[in-house]
Write a structure and sequence with these properties.
The mean pLDDT is 88. Helix 1 packs across helix 2. The chain is an alpha+beta fold and 72 residues long. A two-stranded parallel sheet has the order 1-2. Strand 1, helix 2 and strand 2 form a beta-alpha-beta unit. The protein is globular. The protein contains two helices and two strands, in the order αβαβ.
């Protein structure tokens, strides 16, 4: 395996291929932490595959923090 096999995009593709091979449809994806981005990318790229999307403890789709805060 190469580093490219572990990018968020590559992992989302792996999940999509896995679900397709198993014939899974109407997925409920749950993404935690870094997995939140994987779940979001998969849902955006394959919306026909995903029925529900749950993101837990992930800043994946959060807006950028306000400038001048201790979070920037």
């Amino acid at each position: 395996m190469n580093d490219e096999d572990w990018t968020v995009d590559a992992v989302a593709e792996h999940v999509a291929n896995f679900a397709t091979q198993l014939g899974l449809k109407n997925l409920t994806l749950v993404g935690h932490s870094r997995g939140g981005m994987t779940a979001v990318l998969l849902a955006l790229k394959y919306p026909e595959m995903v029925k529900k999307l749950v993101i837990i403890s992930s800043a994946t789709a959060a807006p950028a923090p306000p400038v001048g805060t201790d979070m920037d």
